[in-house]
TrEMBL record:
Gene3D superfamilies: 3.30.230.10, 3.30.70.240, Elongation Factor G (Translational Gtpase), domain 3 (3.30.70.870), P-loop containing nucleotide triphosphate hydrolases (3.40.50.300), Translation factors (2.40.30.10). This is Elongation factor G-like protein EF-G2. It comes from the Bacteria. One of its GO terms (molecular function) is GTP binding. The keyword Nucleotide-binding applies. Residues 21-296 form the Tr-type G domain.
Length: 710
């Protein structure tokens, strides 16, 4: 592994725990640039895991260890950073905020039991941020909101809180408020304690004035709003009456109800935090360790047998049957394959044999596989650093090395009771990149490296196009493609990209006649075959029909299938631009044979020549594939999307509007969709999504031959 200890001041690593109650798995979610990685770095420092805080700009942070992340100065994959606080092991999971890496985000959420949703105090809440919030909401992920970078010169903490409440809806309520004045700190609305960070971390705690103000907001009014929100989620129906009657509610009971509301995903406390000054870090750690659910309180995913048979529901029981999932795969030049694993049930122990299963991603280049592997060592992962641990119990996360068959999304279980964990939802890659080796001798190595890269990233799809002879890597976007290519090159392969070629089709636009004559006399046994055909176009998708209208035996019956075979072979090769010919009917109407020199091979050749002659006598046109495209876009961008689809020669089939979002359906030539994934994101500020499915072939423009994409 890469050892950054010297330059990053690493302290001791978090060790294994034996009780799921002592674990908190927390994923950090938020837009690119919101400060997630920097916040984790600060938490690592104040918890004692680091002696010195790294920098995103300098490429010295624990989580942004991938060379692509350092180059782009943004996270490109998930990373684990365990810390301990008050006897609780907190597995912090950093995730990318850029849309290209939503697959990594979903993997991080799969490994977690709760989320810290990080937004910058100076940036507001844009549509891309709302989309990330909806990613969490779609799986009912418990979450709190962190207002980060509160020391920014344009920071507006209270304004950002209001923006979050408006964008994310009910349940987003401040738990702490910033303090006015020269002594930086926060006011706890439940505890009514004020933290003073003027002397650094940890803060000094003093009693707050209940009637005071914080940044021009009355503390008492904000506290009332918070407590009323907690009471609304409480199962104690007497709390509201007691509170309105002036009774002082028990702080511990309020915190218990807060934890329950957060666990349900219906209540989202907001806390301001500054990674650089340390303000809010103590409060954030307290919220995570006391207010976030443990693995025991978060329902694990469903499992089945490897054949799809029903299986008992999982529980976070260290003594239960083993069921774990590979949430991330990476390659290290020294260690080899590293699998980051979330254990849902049972306990992973070293020097044991496990069963590794991966099913359901064949269409993305991940063949179904089952294998028994021996786990020799178990590690606690912190960025690139691995620290060996004696075991990993249900609810915890760990790293395994040299488990050769393991790919991202695979299930690790007992050989005696193999199971499959229900996979998380994978986004569809829609940007094709044709990859070629610069050196002729590197083709095999390129294929092997591509397989390794795809094994670690289920959002990639590898397509070997037999018609164009291209290796096409389908990616989520330009940044995703850049990361994939950099990982290929890191494997020692000199690769480049070329234009993706769209496979076209040929057909006849009208009837034609053709004559095929294959006669050769060279002394000895000759070759003799003559046939006459009529060709007519069929409806799109009809395929190929062969009709025999030979009368009088001018072509013996045994040679008529030979003519058809020769025509079919020529259909596959094409007659104009080398693309397969489709949707025609060929009628064999006449011919000649020789009693000695006619043969199967001769009539195959004559059939092919007859089709070529018909093409020369008639009119052959090109067909291009049309995809049905479904675009989901906010209403304000519908006009832009419709205009763009028209410019791409698309035909709009319909538009449906629902609650501020429109769904546009259109048929669009595949040649016009090569860059659509990035161009749609650009024209809609990242707010639109789309899917595409093959529809049919239709006539292409007259000037189109072997079209290539730019």
């Amino acid at each position: 592994m890469v050892d950054k200890q010297a330059k990053n001041g690493r302290g001791s690593a978090a060790m294994a725990v034996d009780d799921p109650r002592k674990v908190r798995n927390v994923v950090l979610v938020g837009p690119c640039g919101s400060g997630k990685t920097t916040l984790i770095e600060a938490l690592l420092t104040v918890s004692g895991a680091l002696d010195r805080t790294g920098s995103v700009t300098d490429g010295t942070t624990v989580c942004d260890h991938d060379p692509a992340a350092v180059r782009q100065q943004r996270s490109v994959g998930i990373a684990f950073a365990p810390i301990t606080h008050d006897g609780i092991k907190i597995n912090l999971i950093d995730t990318p905020g850029y849309a290209d890496f939503v697959g990594e985000l979903r993997a991080g959420m799969r490994a977690a039991d709760a989320a810290l949703f990080v937004v910058c105090a100076a940036d507001g809440v844009d549509a891309a941020t709302v989309a990330l919030w909806n990613e969490c909401a779609a799986i009912d992920m418990p979450r709190a909101v962190v207002i980060s970078r509160t020391d920014h010169k344009r920071a507006d903490v209270l304004g950002e809180m209001r923006a979050c409440q408006e964008a994310f809806g009910a349940g987003v309520v401040p738990l702490y408020l910033p303090v006015d004045g020269e002594r930086p700190g926060l006011v706890g609305l439940i505890t009514q304690q004020r933290s003073d960070y003027s002397a650094g971390y940890p803060p000094t705690m003093i009693a707050a004035d209940p009637q005071g103000t914080s940044a021009a907001v009355p503390v008492s009014a904000a506290r009332d709003e918070l407590i009323e929100g907690i009471i609304a989620e409480s199962e104690d129906e007497t709390l509201m009456d007691r509170y309105l009657g002036g009774e002082q509610l028990d702080e511990a009971a309020l915190i218990d109800d807060l934890e329950t509301a957060v666990e349900r995903g219906s209540f989202h406390p907001v806390i301001p935090v500054c990674a650089h000054t340390g303000v809010g870090l103590a409060e954030l750690l307290e919220l995570v360790s006391r207010g976030f659910p443990s693995p025991l309180e978060h329902e694990p995913p469903d499992v089945t047998g490897v054949n799809g048979d029903p299986h008992d529901t999982l529980r976070a029981d260290p003594d239960g049957p083993l069921a774990a999932e590979v949430v991330h795969t990476s390659m290290d030049s020294y260690v080899g394959r590293i699998s980051l694993v979330r254990v849902f049930s049972g306990t992973l122990r070293p020097d044991r044999t496990v069963h590794v299963s991966g099913h359901g991603l064949t269409e993305r280049g991940h063949a179904d596989h089952d294998a028994d592997e021996r786990v020799t060592h178990i590690y606690s992962a912190r960025g690139t650093e691995l620290s060996e641990v004696p075991y990993c119990v249900a609810g915890d996360v760990c790293a395994l090395t040299k488990v050769g068959s393991a790919e991202t999304g695979d299930t690790v279980s007992l050989p005696s009771d193999p199971v499959l964990v229900r996979p998380w939802s994978m986004p569809e890659p829609l940007l094709p990149i044709a990859v070629v080796a610069n050196k002729r001798g590197d083709e095999d190595a390129l294929s092997r490296n591509l397989a390794r890269v795809v094994a670690g990233d289920p959002t990639l799809r590898l397509e070997r196009n037999s018609e164009t002879n291209q290796l096409v890597l389908w990616c989520m976007g330009e940044a995703h493609a850049d990361v994939a290519l950099s990982r290929l090159r890191a494997g020692g392969i000199d690769v480049t990209t070329e234009d993706v070629r769209i496979p076209l089709r040929e057909t006849f636009s009208g009837p034609a006649r053709g004559h095929g004559r294959h006669v050769k006399q060279s002394g000895g046994h000759g070759q003799y075959a003559v046939c006459y055909i009529e060709v007519e176009p069929l409806a799109r998708g009809a395929g190929f029909e062969f009709v025999d209208r030979i009368v009088g035996g001018v072509i013996p019956n045994q040679f008529i299938p030979s003519v058809e075979k020769g025509i079919r072979n020529q259909l596959a090769l094409g007659v104009a631009e080398g693309y397969p010919m489709v949707d025609i009917r060929v009628t064999l109407v006449d011919g000649k044979a020789h009693s000695v020199d006619s043969s199967d091979a001769a009539f195959q050749t004559a059939g092919a020549l007859a089709l070529k002659d018909a093409a020369a006598n008639g009119s052959v046109i090109m067909l291009e594939p049309l995809d049905e495209v479904v675009v989901r876009v906010p209403d304000e961008h519908v006009g832009t999307v419709l205009g763009d689809l028209s410019a791409r020669r698309g035909r709009v089939l319909g538009t449906e509007a629902t609650a501020g979002t429109s769904t546009v359906r259109a048929d669009v030539p595949a040649t016009e969709l090569l860059r659509y994934a990035t161009e749609l994101r650009s024209m809609t500020s990242g707010t639109a999504t789309f899917t595409r499915t093959f529809s049919r072939y239709e006539p292409a423009p007259q000037n189109m031959t072997a079209h290539t994409g730019g």
